[in-house]
Amino acid sequence: MYTKLSNTLSNAWSWWWQSNNPADNQARLVLTSVIALLAVLWFFLFFIRNLSTNKSPPLPPGPKGLPLVGNLLSLDPELHTYFSNLAQKYGPIYKLKLGQKIGIVITSPAIAKEVLKDQDTTFANRDVPVAGLEAAYGGSDIVWNPYGPEWRMLRKVCVREMLSNNTLDSVYALRRKELRETISYLYSRAGSPVNVGEQMFLTMMNVITSMLWGGTVKGEERVGLGAEFKQVVGEMTALLGMPNLSDFYPGLSRFDLQGIQKKMNGLAKRFDGIFENIIAQRLKINGEGNESKDFLQVLLHLKDEGDAKTPLTMTHVKALLMDMVVGGTDTTSNTIEFALAEMMNKPEVLKKAQQELLTVIGQENTVEESDINKLPYLNAVMKEVLRLHPALPLLVPHCPSITTNIAGYTIPEGARVFINVWAIHRDPLIWENPLEFNPERFLNGKWDYSGNEFNYFPFGSGRRICAGISMAERMFMYSLASLVHSFNWSLPKGEKLELSEKFGIVLKKRMPLVAIPTLRLSSSSLYE
């Protein structure tokens, strides 16, 4: 082939370069040979490239989109159900064109395992939204920080130091005080309607802030701080769940066309001012030799004594405080609200839970956190609520650091990967009567929150599994046990129980649960 090509090129070349000079003929022959060799090399590379291209798996299937906008205009606000319905047509893995971004939606345990376990390192990054960067000091927190030494340091701080069982045990008195104040308030409202979700949000907010900085902020200042946090957290979670053109068209981010970045920046500055003030108060207290035992104290100690190679900075400290305040309030309070609503909707479940509490705790005692491990039925209630209503229905989206293959399809670098855990938890091929609230399915002890079983993983899986599982489990169990042990619950006359959901980065109950508490315990002193 090479000789034939060389002769053809030589004949063609001689038409341009006619000469009888032997030197010219030799030069022409060398030049012709070089050109022929380059041509063969080009054809070889072209063949290999085409062969490689032909062998590359295609992108997953998916709905056709419009030019420039892709599928953005067809997105439904209830993304978890919209994605679930699309899976019926396009299969357990499909793509969406989201402006200049590719979205990949996964609705299968086997494919979720490929992403979160088999290729965990590849998918350990986040596609960070602009609002997330603004809220978390440029992504300096554990949620949005890219996978690497800094993230591993933050993970270690959270799991081994701040949220370890020993540290949580040490601040139990702070949690107990806040929950007992809520029970006392509900006692004062016995026989009258109460907005359960609102009360549990305030309880969680007070619990979280109390564990974060303990007795640093007191009295009227503390009451005002709780009200301000409630407002700011609500606005921040709304912005985090809002579609933002800056995320789908990165080139437009400098213009902030929807004003989301500006709004989030303003909210983040309000939090930063609060954090700065509290940290300054704490450093002053520490300077006087009066150290408190709470999360802030742990963080400040680690900042001073931390690893010089990957130090914990004051920015990290404030970013972790932000994670705790924003991530530890809505999630737990919404799950408790769903739980009580589901139990009221199935009175036999509520009755079984109350009977278990009566047997273990007794009518003459209040619930303590140390009791929760003796309540297997209530624990099954928690697992069933998180099956039907996972706090983060699409988890936090993952982002591959390189182009890779999943389930026989190409997943491009930088894609936004959604794991629809909400749909997996309701798959009739996995769960019997999946839409029924049935805690008994969890009494066999098979399911846990480890993320190793991909039919059930409400807290995620792999390296990015939720760092606060232990605290979430304690707060849910302790709070719900106290609510159903201390009170009977009923709807106001003429009201109908409503269980529908409202999608957001955190799943909410569409209609707030307004219910009437009535007393169950033997003495009023048990409500103090």
UniProtKB/TrEMBL annotation:
Keyword Translocase: no
Protein localization: Membrane
Keywords carried by this UniProt record: Heme, Iron, Membrane, Metal-binding, Monooxygenase, Oxidoreductase, Transmembrane, Transmembrane helix
CDD domains documented for this protein: CYP76-like (cd11073)
InterPro entries: Cyt_P450, Cyt_P450_CS, Cyt_P450_E_grp-I, Cyt_P450_sf
Membrane topology: Single-pass membrane protein
Main location: membrane
Residues annotated as transmembrane: 29-48
Keyword Transmembrane helix recorded: yes
Top-level taxon of the source organism: Eukaryota
Family: Belongs to the cytochrome P450 family.
Record-given protein name: Flavonoid 3'-monooxygenase-like
Organism: Penstemon davidsonii
